[in-house]
Amino acid sequence: MADNNKINRKASDHDGPLPQGFHLMAKPAGPSCNLRCGYCFYREKKTFFPANTMFRMSDEVLETYTREYIESQPGSAVVFDWQGGEPTVLGVDFFQRALDLQQKYGQGKQISNTLQTNGTLLDEAWCAFLSRNKFLVGLSLDGPEAVHDAFRLDKDGRPTCARVLDKLRMMQRYGVEVNVLATINSQSATHPLEVYRFFRQQGVQFIQFIPIVERETDSEAENLGISLAAPPSLTHEEKSTTVTPWSVEPTQYGEFLIQVFQEWIRNDVGRIFVMNFEWTLGAWAGVAPGVCYLAPRCGGNLILEHNGDIFSCDHFMYPVFRLGNILERGLKEMVQSTQQIAFGASKETALPGYCRGCELLFACRGGCPKHRFATSPDGESGLNYLCEGFKKFYHYVHPAMTRMVELIYRGIPVQKIMEVAEQSETSGQPLGEGEISG
Predict the structure, then answer these.
(1) Where residue 74 falls among pLDDT bands split at 50, 70, 90?
(2) How confident is residue 100, by pLDDT bands cut at 50, 70 and 90?
(3) Mean pLDDT, to the nearest integer, of 45-74?
(4) What is the pLDDT of residue 5?
(5) Where in the sequence numbering do the catalytic residues fall?
(6) How many CA atoms lie within 13 A of 72 on its CB side?
(7) What's the pLDDT tens digit per position in 303-349?
(8) Is the pLDDT of residue 15 over 70?
(9) What's the 3-state SS for the chain?
């Protein structure tokens, strides 16, 4: 299988003193951001804080987080993951303090850092800092201008694609390790090959496609003072299924991945790593998933807000999913709490019967609980909205995945699949759909 450590370091399974390892994503600037992306689900979380809040992690929270997080990881490697909002609004000095604290409490462990950013605030000093300290940077870039600028605008409504590309090239010059995180939304979903070939042209080697799915406001959202509906209850309480205009449709999602896969498997295996395909290959090979939404259970990927609050998940940053504050309650205690254990287990225990009997459950595991607001064909609630897209994609890639697993087990470079794909196309027998067995 292709090496996916670069894109997935932030999701690595590090053993901890707990029954299961956990990962804590830090949001040092909270929901603060210099852009106004049309599909952003996090910016409106400002509503949950007082109007005069300064969205900046204090030195006390930063030090407590650093010390407790390192102490909770008994393995030799610890990954600090910085996201937002937009974390770079805090400047280089904040992250230098973070590195100093990591060294102070590091206990000789191998510590690495990842940074998710829109890229627009980066400059030469930033790039030198990121390169020198070996940060893995996840850059938010949706595709060429027409695609990217459909939703990713600044506060003044101006396009940002040209600025992001300039920063990408700057980071490449400095040797910064960069991966692209691209959304599949209602706009980009109609241009799969244009998007993929654009990334290839930019010299991007690691790509992760993230489906955008948000529901229109409902009474619960209105009570919370937000405009987007909160994730459905894990007890399958009935919710509205109306999605926003920028959300990708299930069949669009599956078709997007299929068209990119067709291009990738004929030309780019071993050169470009599309993490959606890497994770799929892992499922077919029986390897533990590299991302939480494809795992049988969740609950091991929590978030730390700028003020020290700990929440069950990035997509569940709502008062009911608050576990406590790191200045008032131990991190291990919150991770081990009955509330968090139940949250993680519900991903599996709340699956509808339709999913439990599905031949593809081993691959999708019901998907992210945030998207489980659809109704199954037999009328049961709790089906993942993207189910039809998952099925379309997995059925299509089954023959290719099966052959790639065979290559791996036989010790043959997986790139050989490109020759198989070419021969299949020449013979008029495409890799196409296939029956799933086992």
Answers:
(1) confident
(2) very high
(3) 95
(4) 34
(5) 314
(6) 23
(7) 999 999 999 999 999 999 999 999 999 999 999 999 999 999 999 99
(8) no
(9) CCCCHHHHHHHCCCCCCCCCCCEEEECCCCCCCCECCCCCCCHHHHHHCCCCCCCCCCHHHHHHHHHHHHHCCCCCEEEEEECCCCHHHHCHHHHHHHHHHHHHHCCCCEEEEEEEECCCCCCHHHHHHHHHCCCEEEEECCCCHHHHCCCCEECCCCECHHHHHHHHHHHHHHCCEEEEEEEECCCHHHCHHHHHHHHHHCCCCEEEEEECCCEECCHHHHHHCCCECCCCCCCCCCCCCCECCCCCCHHHHHHHHHHHHHHHHHHCCCCCEEHHHHHHHHHHHCCCCCCHHHCCCCCCEEEECCCCEEECCHHHCCHHHEEEECCCCCHHHHHCCHHHHHHHHHHHHCCCHHHHCCCCHHHHCCCCHHHCCEECCCCCEEECCCHHHHHHHHHHHHHHHHHHHHHHHCCCCHHHHHHHHHHHHHCCCCCCCCCCCC
Is the pLDDT score of 376 beyond 80?
A: yes
pTM for the whole structure: 0.91
CA distance to 125, 259, 261, 362, per residue, from 280 (Å): 38, 15, 11, 10
Q: Which residues pair with 181 in a beta bridge?
A: 140, 208
161-174 vs 124-132: helix crossing angle, rounded to 10:
40
Query: Token pair of 267, please?
Result: 């030309």
Cis ω on the peptide bond leading into residue 411 (within 30° of 0)?
A: no
Amino acid at 76: S
Of the candidates 260, 250, 285, 129, which has an alpha carbon nearest to the alpha carbon of residue 204? Answer: 260
Residue 221 is predicted with a pLDDT of 85
Strand partners, 139: 117, 180
pLDDT of 428 above 70: no
Which residues have C-beta within 8 Å of that of residue 387, sequence separation ≥ 6? 250, 364, 367, 374
Q: Pick from 242, 438, 236, 215: which is nearest to 347 by CA?
A: 236
Give how far Cα 333 sits from Cα of 25, 141, 310, Å. 17, 37, 11
Q: How confident is the model at residue 10 (pLDDT cuts 50, 70, 90)?
A: very low
Strand-pairing partners, residue 221, are none
Q: What pLDDT, in 10s, does the model give residues 205-246?
A: 999 999 999 999 888 888 889 999 988 764 445 566 899 999
pLDDT (0 to 100) of residue 1:
39
Amino acid at 187: Q
**Identity (one letter) of the amino acid at 6?**
K
